[in-house]
Amino acid sequence: MPHLVLTHFLRRGLGALLTPALVLLVAGLLLAATEARAQGAASAPAAPAPAAAAKPAASPTAAAPPAATAPASGPAAGASPTTPATDSAEGVAGGEGAADTRGLDQDVQGLKKDVVDLNRELFVLEEELLFPANTQVAVFLSMDVGDFFALDSVTLKIDQKEVIHYLYTPREVEALLKGGVHRLYLGNLKVGKHELVAFFGGKGPNDRDYKRGATLKFEKGIGAKYLELKINDRQRRQQPEFEIKDWE
Predict the structure, then answer these.
(1) Tell me: the pLDDT tens digits for 21-55?
(2) Do 140 and 241 lie in a common domain?
(3) What does the pLDDT look like over 119-131, one tens digit per residue?
(4) Can you give the pLDDT at residue 111?
(5) CB–CB of 137/244 below 8 Å?
(6) Does some domain include residue 42?
(7) Residue 165 is part of which domain span?
């Protein structure tokens, strides 16, 4: 367009009247105007960019659905009133767990009792197998009063063969003084005549070491044989007395 204007001026004969400087000035203005228009034309396509930016502006409307979810948080906030139901459910579950634990404890106690009973039955069966009634001999020990003798140990011999040496604890001696009976020995003997010798050790009168013995000859028949070692106080002599009793 500037070139057309300049050509127009030249065609009209005005070019001869213009000085070279004025021509240059006019040409510069025309070029500046041309460049300004060119820049405006270049910037014109950028105008749709705001329109594109307008689309993000629409994002608030797109974000509106999340905003709509805000009421959904209401039930979360309102969930607190339902916590008692949750607590009650947990309480029920805890009660059921405690009941299960008690039931399990009862089962364990029942099993323990069954094991004890079974052990007792096995022990009796073992004795019957190891010590049949036809050959069985049992020796028991008992005490009466115990003012003149404090039992410490007992050694037992049958047919000159030591079969047991037993040391008593204070608790066992106390139980004997209260009327308890201790099975000292259980074994087997053939049918026929035998000799039993018992040696008692402990503290006698005046807290002196005391050792005495007792002897019994007996005959073993068919069936079990039971013998008892008895420790009594002899008041007249203030001495302990030891005897062996045969339970016929």
Answers:
(1) 454 665 566 666 656 665 655 554 444 444 444 44
(2) yes
(3) 878 877 776 677 7
(4) 86
(5) no
(6) yes
(7) 136-247
Task: Look at residue 173 and tell me if it is in a domain.
Answer: yes
pTM for this entry? 0.51
For residue 163, give the CATH number of its domain: 2.60.40
Residue at 239 is within a domain? yes
* Counted domains in the chain: 2
**Poorest-pLDDT segment among 43-47, 182-186, 216-220:** 43-47
In a domain, 69, yes or no: no
